[in-house]
């Protein structure tokens, strides 16, 4: 029963817990990113970016991103921008960005993605 994922968790993550959850978050993110990329190509190819079809595609993209964010929040991660997720560590956030395959960065609570640091800096 080790593969059970707790929904709507509001706790701090150890690095090990965040890493174990990452394959699921990676898969959810990859599916969403591929869908959005395909729809964006269709949108870019439209001759009229203000047409009903363009609005329909933009709405589809927004819904997929909203669903992705909601799923990450239910898993306890904090979505931060498009295809970015933070995991509260108790001293800051473990920071992940698609398509990274593991969590190798962190940043403080007041910092963002642009100030993230390698995890190896925590142990040095």
SSE layout:
Elements: H1 15-45, H2 52-74, E1 78-79, E2 84-88, E3 93-97, E4 105-107, E5 117-118, H3 120-123
Helix pairs in contact: 1-2
Give a written overview of the molecule.
There is one protein chain. The protein has 124 residues and is α+β, with helices and mostly antiparallel strands. The protein has one domain. The chain has three helices and five strands, in the order ααβββββα. A hairpin with a 4-residue loop joins strand 2 and strand 3 (93-97). The longest helix is centred in the N-terminal third of the chain and has 31 residues, at 15-45. The protein starts with 14 loop residues before the first helix and ends with a helix. The mean pLDDT is 92.
Radius of gyration: 17 Å
Number of E-state strands: 5
Helix content: 40-55%
Total of helices: 3
Largest β sheet strand count, sense and barrel closure: 5 strands, antiparallel
Strand content: 5-15%
Q: For the record, give the distance between the C-alpha atoms at the N and C termini, rounded to a whole number.
A: 36 Å
Adjacency order of strands in the biggest sheet = 1-2-3-4-5
Quaternary organisation of the protein chains: single chain
Low-confidence stretches: none
Q: What does the overall shape look like?
A: elongated
User: Structurally, how many domains make up the residues?
Assistant: 1
Order of helices and strands: HHEEEEEH
Average pLDDT level:
92
Specify the structural class: alpha+beta
């Amino acid at each position: 029963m080790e593969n059970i994922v707790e929904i709507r968790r509001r706790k701090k993550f150890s690095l090990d817990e965040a890493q174990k959850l990452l394959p699921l978050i990676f898969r959810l993110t990859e599916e969403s990113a591929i869908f959005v990329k395909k729809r964006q190509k269709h949108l870019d190819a439209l001759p009229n970016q203000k047409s009903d079809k363009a609005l329909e595609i933009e709405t589809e993209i927004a819904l997929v991103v909203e669903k992705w964010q909601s799923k990450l929040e239910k898993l306890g991660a904090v979505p931060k921008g498009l295809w970015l997720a933070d995991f509260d560590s108790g001293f800051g956030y473990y920071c992940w960005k698609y398509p990274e395959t593991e969590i190798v960065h962190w940043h403080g609570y007041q910092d963002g993605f642009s100030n993230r640091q390698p995890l190896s800096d925590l142990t040095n």
